[in-house]
Amino acid sequence: MAEDTELDAFLEDSAADATEAEDIVNELEQDPESMEPQTFTVRGHVCEIRFSRKRIDLYEERHTPIIASFYKNDGMFTFKELAAIAGYGLKVQGGGYFLPQKAEEIANKLIDTNGYPVVFQAVMMALQRDCAFLFKGAGN
């Protein structure tokens, strides 16, 4: 039980970030609704990367805008950017988001353990699935 209490200390209130799903007309190759999130186990809890407009706004208040970084780096993110972006989207499956600072530490460990490509793919799928507006009109 001590582990759950420790984990809870790093989570934000997910109710404040809950939003209703909207019908999205998109030009992605894969339907965002059919994209299953990549899961990771953190301290015995199944976690996933999910984004909302609010999570993107929080990230961009403190970092370079995601799309600016994406285009500047020819479709990639620096190691530090990937850890930060993944951190802002990291949440317990069915639960709350981690606090960004702690989540970035966890995301760094996920990258070390699983490799940059696995975490990058999880982030990109989450961005396409949850925030298709970022890519709309980008020549898809």
Task: Note the main attributes of this structure.
140 residues
Quick overview:
The protein has about 140 residues and is mainly alpha-helical. About 45% of the residues lie in helices and about 10% in strands.
How are the elements arranged and paired?
Layout: H1 2-8, E1 39-42, E2 45-49, H2 53-62, H3 66-72, H4 79-89, E3 90-92, H5 100-114, H6 116-130
Antiparallel strand pairs: 1-2, 2-3
Helix pairs in contact: 2-4, 4-5, 4-6, 5-6
Q: Tell me the structural class.
A: mainly alpha
Mean pLDDT: 80
Largest sheet: 3 strands, antiparallel
Helix content class: 40-55%
Account of the protein in words:
The protein contains six helices and three strands; from the N terminus they run H-E-E-H-H-H-E-H-H. It has helices at 2-8, 53-62, 66-72, 79-89, 100-114, 116-130; strands at 39-42, 45-49, 90-92. Strands 1-2-3 form a three-stranded antiparallel sheet. The longest helix has 15 residues, at 100-114.
